[in-house]
Task: inverse folding
């Protein structure tokens, strides 16, 4: 057994000059569970994400990732692309970052870069068209096809990603992150800009990823219906500190959470309360 | 988008009020021309015999210019109306469309067959053969730079540096150590690639304009080092007496051991030109083949992904450092090959041949061709180098005519001659992606 938690964040602090974006934050994300990170705008959620995924180096604090085989990795010691390559943490972005001029299929192929790079013998085997490379490429295309089928984009596999509707782009970005075969999937507001039907489809997709691939999911979300429906554990942040955590139903009734949302933005507080009834 | 074509009488009606509009527009243009040229052309100043300023008016010339602008404005406006509004979908009959598609697909093979036959058709015309070699050299340079600029989206203004490294590598290795062309060719490529990596390191964090400036400086540094390191490179005097290429060891000379004597045919200096032509053609095709292969490999896809979005690349675990460096190295290697060829063709090289103008020309070929398009680059090299020769008849107006042709071409095709990219992999059918969607790597 390799422990219950896939991610342990301990006393994470991130300062930008005099601004403390994240202050002494500690939380855990359970293996094969969906953990949601919520809070009003400017609470520091995306900063936490950027620390976990290596885009920022935290001022202080530790982030420990424990793989299924018991291997642990201190994320604050890795940087840049190594977070995804070695620690197997994949992420999506608040404002979608697909490769717009490449097709949906190509986007998913790029995501399998590291595996394919090895298979192509660092390009040299691929250049001479070695059979082992051809097999690996075929396998990669099959994997990409499976994901396209799952997100319902098989018919648009050969269309430019930039030409896809917004909701499809969101799903494609999640599929692209999943093609790196991550242990932990970090989603930054995956439901932003989606309509109710698309949100429901997204919830279904995330639940099926958790059930099928066994990938643990960490998610930032403002859409409370999605958070309440799919998350197993909710962490609430405000002004860079954790103000509450627990099961979704407990969070919904927590006076501190309601106060935070009320103080920040009335509409969001109403949204929290309405989704609870 | 408007697809419905207006009925003829409607179109006529909408054109009628245009006459007043056209005259108004032409009048404004003429007025602007009058203001602009009244001093520039209307008045001519000169220093008199005793140093005083004398001037006289040239109303005739001024009137001619203004009248030309007025007339030209009317013609342009009429042409525009005849062509119809911009941005609408023109209805092209399906059979014409399919014919166009066939023609488009046939361009590349036809061009290749024609190129292969050039030495046969124009055997007696040395000028055409020399021009062909020149065009092919630039095609190869364009294809090499296309890896860096077109695929990886790294704006490189110092590409001529690698061309120079390749040329000097061959020149110095062959004159000092007597190494043959076929040994030096890979060495020149490796050395150029090495310098490509060396340039790559300091500019890893730079993008777009900043990258362009640093690469521009790198090109100048290489040139200045070549000029000033007299003991090695001969400085401004260059390197002369560079061995001419041999046919895989058999020299192309009139002597008894020459190729002509061995084959039992009469010697002709054209043999060497033809050999050089096929040599650069082979090198260019090698560049093309490798680039096409690389595009379909993970490294090539990573280059294009890097051009599209570097942050997303990092989030997917792609090592952007090595990806950029391999792009620089690959592009530089082909530049080095081309440089070695240049040295053996000329027999003499000097820093004069490796000025910024060369970098700009090669970059213009890539941009004009359509970033990332192999066929586009070949067509652009043919247009730029060949077209420049075509305009030789215009004498002093050559640059003017050439510049105007460039401007018109970029208005007509803002994304280059080939304005779309072909996907590297597809499930059902490969459909071209408009370059409008693809990024240029300036992010």
Result:
């Amino acid at each position: 057994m390799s422990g219950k938690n896939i991610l342990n964040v301990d006393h994470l602090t991130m300062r930008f000059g005099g601004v403390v974006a994240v202050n002494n934050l500690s939380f855990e994300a359970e293996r094969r569970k969906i953990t949601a990170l919520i809070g009003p705008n400017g609470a520091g959620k995306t900063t936490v994400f950027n620390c976990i995924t290596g885009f920022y180096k935290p001022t202080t604090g530790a982030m420990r990732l424990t793989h299924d085989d018991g291997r642990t990795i201190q994320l604050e010691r890795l940087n840049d692309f190594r977070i995804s390559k070695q620690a197997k943490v994949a992420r999506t972005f608040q404002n979608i970052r697909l490769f717009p001029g490449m097709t949906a299929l190509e986007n998913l192929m790029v995501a399998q870069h590291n595996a394919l790079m090895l298979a192509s013998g660092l390009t040299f085997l691929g250049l001479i068209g070695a059979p082992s490379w051809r097999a690996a490429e075929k396998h990669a295309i099959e994997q990409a096809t499976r994901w396209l089928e799952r997100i319902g984009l098989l018919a648009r596999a050969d269309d430019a990603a930039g030409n896809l509707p917004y909701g499809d782009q969101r799903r494609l970005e999640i599929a692209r992150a999943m093609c790196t075969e991550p242990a932990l999937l970090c989603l930054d507001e995956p439901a932003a800009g989606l309509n109710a039907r698309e949100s429901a489809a997204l919830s279904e997709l995330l639940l099926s990823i958790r059930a099928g691939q066994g990938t643990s999911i960490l998610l930032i979300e403002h859409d409370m219906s999605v958070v309440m429906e799919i998350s197993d554990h909710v962490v609430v942040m405000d002004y860079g500190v954790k103000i509450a955590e627990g099961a979704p139903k407990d969070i919904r009734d927590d006076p501190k959470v309601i106060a935070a949302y009320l103080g920040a933005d009335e509409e969001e507080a109403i949204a929290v309360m309405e989704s609870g009834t | 988008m408007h697809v419905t074509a207006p009925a003829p009488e409607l179109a006529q009606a909408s054109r009628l009020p245009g006459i007043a509009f056209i005259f108004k527009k032409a009048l404004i243009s003429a007025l602007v021309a009058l203001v602009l040229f009244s001093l520039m052309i209307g008045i001519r100043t000169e220093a008199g015999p005793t140093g005083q300023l004398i001037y006289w008016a040239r109303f005739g010339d001024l009137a001619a210019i203004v009248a030309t602008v007025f007339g030209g404005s009317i013609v342009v406006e009429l042409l525009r109306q005849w062509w119809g509004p911009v941005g609408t979908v023109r209805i092209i009959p399906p059979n014409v469309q399919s014919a166009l598609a066939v023609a488009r697909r046939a361009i590349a093979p036809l061009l290749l067959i024609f190129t292969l036959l050039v030495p046969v058709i124009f055997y007696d015309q040395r000028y055409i053969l020399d021009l062909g070699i020149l065009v092919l050299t630039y095609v190869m340079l364009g294809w090499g730079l296309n890896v860096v600029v077109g695929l990886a989206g790294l704006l490189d203004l110092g590409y001529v540096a690698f061309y120079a490294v390749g040329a000097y590598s061959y020149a110095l290795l062959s004159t000092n150590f007597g190494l043959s062309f076929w040994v030096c060719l890979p060495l020149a490529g490796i050395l150029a690639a090495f310098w490509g990596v060396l340039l790559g390191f300091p500019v890893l964090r730079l993008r777009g304009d900043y990258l362009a400036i640093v690469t521009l400086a790198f090109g100048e540094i290489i040139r200045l080092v070549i000029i000033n390191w007299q003991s090695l490179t001969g400085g401004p005097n260059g390197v002369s007496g560079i061995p001419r290429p041999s046919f895989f060891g058999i020299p192309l000379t009139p002597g008894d051991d020459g190729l002509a004597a061995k084959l039992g045919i009469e010697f002709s200096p054209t043999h060497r030109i033809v050999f050089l032509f096929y040599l650069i053609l082979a090198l260019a095709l090698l560049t093309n083949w490798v680039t096409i292969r690389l595009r379909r490999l993970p490294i090539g896809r990573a280059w294009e992904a890097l051009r599209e979005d570097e942050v997303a690349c990092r989030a997917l675990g792609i090592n952007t450092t090595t990806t950029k460096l391999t792009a620089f190295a690959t592009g530089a290697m082909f530049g080095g090959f081309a440089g070695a060829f240049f040295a053996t063709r000329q027999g003499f090289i000097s820093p004069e041949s490796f000025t910024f103008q060369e970098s700009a020309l090669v970059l213009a070929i890539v941009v004009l061709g359509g970033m990332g398009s192999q066929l586009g680059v070949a067509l652009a090299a043919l247009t730029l180098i060949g077209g420049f020769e075509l305009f030789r008849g215009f004498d002093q107006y050559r640059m003017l005519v050439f510049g105007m042709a460039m401007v018109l071409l970029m208005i007509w095709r803002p994304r280059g001659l080939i304005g779309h990219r072909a996907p590297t992999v597809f499930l059902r059918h490969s459909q071209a992606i408009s370059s409008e969607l693809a990024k240029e790597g300036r992010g």
About this structure: The first helix of chain A runs from residue 45 to 52. Chain A touches chain B through 45 residues (CB under 8 Å). DSSP finds twelve helices and ten strands in chain A.
